[in-house]
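Thread: Newbie trying to understand structure tokens

Hi all, I'm a second-year student working on a class project, and my supervisor (Dr. K.) asked me to get a predicted structure for one chain before our next meeting. I've only ever worked with sequences, so writing a 3D structure as a token string is new to me. If someone could post the tokens and maybe explain what I'm looking at, I'd be very grateful. Here's the chain:
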Amino acid sequence: MIDLLMQTRLLNIGLDIFSFLCIFIMFLGSIRNMSQTYDMVLFARVKICFMVAAMADMFSWIFNAELGNMARTALYLSNMVFLFAECLGLAMWFMYVRYRLTGNTSSRKQYLSFCAFFIVLAAVLFSTPINGIFFTLSETNVYSRTAWTDVMSIFQIMLMLYASFSCLRQKSKEQLPERRKECDTLAFFIFPLLIGGLIQFFEFGLNLIIPCGTMAIISVDITLMGQKILQDPLTGLNNRGALDRYILTVEQDTRRFSESIGVMMMDIDDFKGINDTCGHAAGDKALVLFADTLRRSCNNTDVFICRYGGDEFAIVARNIEEPKLNAIKKNLIKNLEEVNQIKDRGFELHSSVGSVYLEKMHAAKVMELIKKADLQLYEQKKAKNESPAHNG
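---
Reply by user tm_fold:
Sure, no problem. This is what the structure looks like when written as tokens:
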């Protein structure tokens, strides 16, 4: 019996370590994208939570049934961290799915409610040595779950089922095959976790939640890798193909409800001069620097940014107020001025910007708005070229 327990413990520890390493490798591959798109940030947070849960679960198996105060303290801490990280990871997953389906971020009220819930959960969890609500430890330091652990599990399952049904409902409205495939991947994220959780519930001592969660994360990560074709390899921004896909999604949504929309087009002034004078390597550096400055200028605003082509970039902002759209332009000009304070690059970055704003989009075509913004951009560029300061 002791040999069986030791074999089970070693198996569970090995599964936790393997799961951690798999997610860690995927996480390292996504670090470059974390500052580029909000959905990548959310998915990276899901990975972080699962890595923390895997490590906490590993330590809980290492110290389970080990005697001594140090082992008891380690058991309490590791199990509390595991339960918190697991719940937080699934909540992050729900937020990720919501953003991928609707493109909407949480409002300030929703964000505060989210924080308040997890503050309360943390307070209850980390007082477990006193209240014993979510689990107990026997005198020989053997872990036992309580009814409240099952309540938490049921809540998590209901949250994930809701996310899965939302994905399947959205799939029926999508036209693009890639988008429908993504909805399927997100919808079936729950099944490995559900199967592993049910087996673990009836066969306590067998660790399947973490490895099954890792399988689910891998499936989503593979789907995201397929979407790399929609990313500009130089700047890391969305590319023209991603814009076309996004436009289709926006125009589908406007059939159901009307919302404001803002479009901005911008390019690098005298980009050809940078290439001719400093070389194409400097031109590439200018594009990357401009993309980073543009991303920073959006100041975490929920907007779609892409490299439209060449040295031209586009922003599409849904459900945005006009002052916020104008603030992006002001931020860009101010940030470019700061960038130009460094004189050893051999070039300066300046930009012309055209923008169009509609308070109610209705059935307007986004490409028509982009063309209008593009026309404004070239009118501004023409005015710059004809100005006395420029000619002088």
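A couple of things are worth pointing out once you decode it. The chain has two domains: 2-230, 240-391. The chain has 15 helices and six strands. Feel free to ask follow-ups in this thread.
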